[in-house]
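The material for today's practical consists of a large collection of protein records. A record pairs a protein's sequence with a compact description of its fold. Instead of coordinates, the fold is spelled out as a row of discrete tokens. We will come back to this pairing of sequence and fold again and again. Here is such a record, shown just as it appears in the course material.
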Amino acid sequence: MRLLVFDDDAAIGRLVVRLAVLAGLNAEAVTDAAAFERSLGATPPDIIVLDLQLGGTDGVEQLRFLAARRYTGSIIVMSGFDPRVLEATSTVARNLGLNIVAALPKPIRVTSLEQILEQQRSVPRPLSAEGVLAAIRNNELVLEYQPIVSRHPRTLKKLEALLRWDHPTLGRVLPGEFLPIAEADKDVIDKLTDWVIGAAVQAWGLLRERGVSTPIAVNVSTLNLHDLAFPDRIASRLADGGMPASQLCLEITETAASLDAARMMDVLTRVRLKGMQIAIDDFGTGYSSLKALRQLPFSEVKIDQSFVSDMTTSSDSRAIVKSIVDLAVNMEMETIAEGVETEETARMLEQFNVDALQGFLFARSMPIDDVPAWLAMWMKGGKPASTQTTSSVLSFAMDVRARDRG
């Protein structure tokens, strides 16, 4: 396993290299941007340790460079600057789709870095783009479905399809671990998204045969939206499966929506013209929220669970949620609150006139075969299936975030 340090202080670089070697890693250090780019090479390192203050450049600029190269390894950021800057940089990196595993203040605590390096050394890393393609061929991928509901009256609004990989040796792998790898190759992410949509269409047909008719939402990668033919591919797949376009909703993360707005507008407008719905996911976590809402043809806003989870104890979160709901109403969009785990939170959201709720209070994600039974019980006011399901999945994907979604 290879580690690369970028710090303009050579002494710090030597210290990190020494600790990495003691942890059993191959390691090297560089002090300038040109050497950093050369050292990345055709086979990037598994771990990058990046300082934020770098003389002629800075850590944020280098993180953007890594995101442009679709780097999928682990990143440790460090800085002796204001702790808020270190935290903000970590957030920027995650919004770029990068895998930040630690943010360390300087001076570095040797024991902390040793623990992080040991953890990283023990992380299995057998995943690859070729492995994702093999998973598609070998039927190792599965979709689970989490209900999105309203309670007055009780209604199943839609199901969100969540991608899982039942790896033959690693067991169940969540999308956050393999989506960045798939997104590093446009052909791979296109094939993966096509599989997800195809599986969702089949699931919709299966539910209809069992008397359940409900829309299905799927998460879409930013890369898919750069393909002008994407709306036609989806429409063709829906037609082949007999699924009306109105029954499919594409979920786009707010970060993705802020990129390449002109091309995104072209693709998403055609998606809407073909009858599909589009939700802006994780709303409130990015930096171009209002611009994205105004420019792009969204039909729904999903309020990020980071605001929902603590709104009963945080006046700031309550104010943000209420503002998002009011904004969506004025723009004639529906609202969905993610991460609803308590009855108190659900009641408060309903008082704010949120249109739909999603979270463990109602159900965890489940196989498609379990949906009819859950729905029958829930419609009768029974105990939420989230406390009865045998599913081992304890959380659902986030963003993709990023990016965690598929």
Q: What stands out?
A: The chain is about 40% helix and 20% strand. The first strand starts at residue 2 and ends at 6. The chain has a mean pLDDT of 86.
